[in-house]
Amino acid sequence: MKLGTLLIHNGHDTDPATGALGTPVYQTSTFDRGPEFDLSGGPPPAAGRLDYEYSRSGNPTRKALEDAAALLEGGSSAYAFSSGIAAIASTLGIFAAGDHIISAEDIYGGSYRVLNTYFKRWGLEHTALSVVNPDTIRAAIRPATKALFMETPSNPLLKITDLRASCAAAQEAGLITIVDNTFMTPFLQRPLELGADIVVHSATKFLGGHSDVIAGIAVTKTPELGKRVYAVLNGFGAVLGPWDCFLVLRGIKTLQVRIEAQQKTASLIADFLSRHPNVEAVYYPGMAERAQREIHEAQAAGPGAVLSFKTKTVDQALSFLGKTRLAVPAVSLGGVETIASYPVKMSHASIPPVERERLGISKSLIRISAGLEDAGDLIADFDSALNCAATT
Ligand SMILES: *Cc1c(COP(=O)(O)O)cnc(C)c1O
């Protein structure tokens, strides 16, 4: 079956007890274990009764989401966490003091922070590469290196990393490869099929899709890695609540139509911006230089719904953010509403200015997550917000 079908019919599409199409929200902390203690030889527990004990360890609504996520990413097991960063930090929690992790320097700011503050204090070593390719990976590997952590396209400049080649280089050295697939979603990119071992998501973004829930997911290729991640999930306890699991499951049902529509709008916006006189540069996988675009097209089914652009002057960027009436100036992405983020004041505010400039994150840079509004309305709004900027 195609992914679009699996988004709807994923094994939890009908409740076995009632036939309900909506996944029941099992809003419970604990489960009746009485039948285990029935020594009278009374009737056995009802056939089909599921084996749950306590909702931190497992909950049927969470299981429905976890099974759907494993199916979509093509993994053997998946776990749902209370946020994307909880999924990432809990996955990194499978490593030990003295282990060494390699990542790109432009991974999600929160991932960089948890590696360089929290895990550093616990003795996990970290090297951040400015470019991730087989040569830089091999050069950074030490005897203690255990994992490679990647994200493609990157944020906010949408740089592309070759997943197949990087995973292969990591695998030669026996590393575990972890890919943050938040920007692409399994509908556009499936890292486990390209050689990765674990995929992590901020389900807050496209999977949830409606800017109404904070959630994270980790999917592992093998059951063995699944057991290691589960031990942290259950032991550390950053689990996703049943109601939030329901919201993400509900979001996943419309993932295909949302991402297709939002991606189409993002392409139209990128094209419009690239021809606008006040725009200096547009960053979008569909418009990247040829070598980058070819790598992206070989590993992903589309350019996605996130793009960034630089205006010619800082005033033009500030004026755009103040004057757009349809794009919400906010952090986050992947929702049905178009969002305009300003990385220097939001996601990358904690990076020293000199370092930010080196990374290409300037005060004229704006990131757009295209929503489900009419593309023509968005472009007309952006045009007037940018043109105002020309005259002020
Ligand atoms: C938002 C985001 C995260 C963090 O997820 P939260 O749900 O906010 O904790 C991680 N990675 C990427 C790429 C993100 O965009």
Structure, described:
Helix content is 39%, strand content 15%. The chain has helices at 3-8, 60-73, 84-92, 109-121, 134-140, 163-172, 185-188, 223-236, 242-253, 255-274, 290-299, 314-323, 353-358, 375-391; strands spanning 77-81, 100-104, 125-129, 145-151, 176-180, 198-202, 216-220, 279-283, 306-311, 328-329, 339-341, 365-369. It has a 7-stranded mixed β-sheet, sandwiched between helices. The mean pLDDT is 94.
Architecture blueprint of SSEs:
Elements (H helix, E strand, L loop, with lengths): L2 H6 L51 H14 L3 E5 L2 H9 L7 E5 L4 H13 L3 E5 L4 H7 L4 E7 L11 H10 L3 E5 L4 H4 L9 E5 L13 E5 L2 H14 L5 H12 L1 H20 L4 E5 L6 H10 L6 E6 L2 H10 L4 E2 L9 E3 L11 H6 L6 E5 L5 H17 L1
Parallel strand pairs: 2-3, 2-4, 4-5, 5-6, 10-11
Antiparallel strand pairs: 1-7, 6-7, 8-9, 9-12, 11-12
Helix pairs in contact: 2-9, 3-4, 5-6, 12-14
Pyridoxal-5'-phosphate binds next to helix 3.
Instruction: Supply the number of helical segments.
Output: 14
* Count of discrete structural domains: 2
Number of strands: 12
Share of residues in helices: 25-40%
Structural class: alpha/beta
Tell me the major beta sheet.
7 strands, mixed
Kindly, what is the distance between the CA atoms of the first and last residues, rounded to a whole number of angstroms? 54 Å
* Element string (H = helix, E = strand): HHEHEHEHEHEHEEHHHEHEHEEHEH
The parts where pLDDT drops under 50 for at least 5 residues are: none
Question: How would you state the average pLDDT, rounded?
Answer: 94
Strand content bin: 5-15%
Radius of gyration over all CA atoms, rounded: 22 Å
The CATH fourth-level homologous superfamily of the largest domain: Type I PLP-dependent aspartate aminotransferase-like (Major domain)
* CATH third-tier fold name of the largest domain: Aspartate Aminotransferase, domain 2
